[in-house]
Design a protein that fits this description.
- This protein has 446 residues and is of the alpha/beta class.
- It folds into 2 domains: 2-63 and 210-435, Zn peptidases (Aminopeptidase, 3-Layer(aba) Sandwich); 65-206, Glucose Oxidase, domain 1.
- It contains 10 helices and 19 strands.
- The protein has helices spanning 2-19, 33-48, 112-115, 138-144, 178-190, 241-259, 287-293, 295-302, 350-362, 411-428; strands at residues 27-28, 52-60, 64-76, 79-82, 87-88, 100-106, 124-129, 149-154, 173-176, 198-208, 212-220, 224-233, 236-237, 268-275, 305-311, 317-321, 331-337, 341-344, 389-393.
- The strands form 4 sheets. An 8-stranded mixed beta sheet has the order 4-3-10-6-7-8-9-5, with helices on both faces. A 7-stranded mixed beta sheet has the order 2-11-14-12-15-19-18, sandwiched between helices.
- Helix 1 crosses helix 6, helix 6 crosses helix 10 (411-428) and helix 9 packs antiparallel against helix 10.
- The longest helix is centred in the middle third of the chain and has 19 residues, at 241-259.
- It is elongated and about 80 Å long.
Length: 446
Amino acid sequence: KHLHQYVEEQAAISRRYRDQGHPKFWGRIIGTSADAESAEWLANKFKSFAMSDVRIQPLDLSPQWFPQKWEVTVTGGGKTVRLDSAQPDYRAAALPPGGIDVEAVYGGLGSAADLVGKDLKGKAVFTYTMLGTHSEDAVKRADENGAVAIFEVDMLPGNMRYQAYPSNTKAPGFTVGSDDGLAVRDLIASLPPGQAAHVKATLDVQMVPNLKTALVWGTLPGATDETIYIVAHRDGWFEASGDNASGVAAMVGLAEYYARMPQAERRRTMVFIGLDGHHNTGPGSAVGGVWLNDPANKAKLFAKTALSINCEHPSTIQTYVRPRYLAGDVVHWSNMYTAQQWYVGGPSRPELTAIAVKAFKDFGVPLLTEPNPRPPAGDLGRLYRFTPGVATSEFFHYFHTDRETPETVPWTGLQATTRAYAKIIDEVNKQPLSTFQRPEEPVPTR
């Protein structure tokens, strides 16, 4: 529960930013005052543990995407549905001044079969999806067929706001909560043949220049100049409790634990980095990761690195959507945390895999039965080619939504995963550097 307090403190940073005049697009967003407050919060934690070389390294940002205001309503048959849950996809293009007033089209799952015979040109299309369904590329298909706005309804029970990554479409994409999306579907269905519902929508966007973000550093010197890196990204949408206050909390917990240990008992120097993050997807994103990947910085920092752990979504509540024999259109919560996706050093490091799998088992951290078959997602994806990397994570139902509160992060899972990370560190420290270091892997081709 001690670690969970760190999750709650970061969620409070997000809420403060929301309450300062950002009611719809909020969180610990890169380049904002919440980003700066998050950096100060983390640096102060490191200082409280008497860590060395605690500093906030500022980084310049290219112009950042910020939606200023937007409204979406659907009308027909004398009825109006206001889509309060509509959230523009990151980097969505602005709508024309004054907005649009166009026909609404029900697109079902958005598959080719769903859209056969439907004229989408100049219209607003509603498609429906949910975690676990087959990807139909519905948003891309609607865009290619001339839609001027695309609304992707998340069919999870409730009416969650969901912040999506870029749709990479000409027409702006929006996510919509289930309640709003079903109301639109039912409105369209209620109209007589030949009568269409209409969408009125506005979206104003600014690309804001001259913003900054930061890397936050703290070091625990060891008995040697060999290194272990612990990283976690600080940014996130809404309260961002799972993604990624939980990861930052795990990193802080590890720093707190090892800071109590005499330097002579820490075989390797431990470097902790609060990364800026990656939710500002697109050109100019993840500037901290780019800085770490600069050849000169990489050579200086990681030449003697035995291990890097990326703490990202380490504890997520296990939920069930409309389970059999339980009434109600709801998401049911359990008293357990989810199994996690995982990556441990890749196939060239069987020793690290054995250490990590045993540690997760010993501390009750459930994993998927097989490691990630491709390079790891998240911030280890920027480090794994030249460091022996470990990452576990899960994304599940509340990922990137305004329901991703501290309650969605079980303290038991956070504790278990953090203890497993510590066990991995201790076991790696029993082995020579040569056990884990390998030549840098090539950049994977897509």
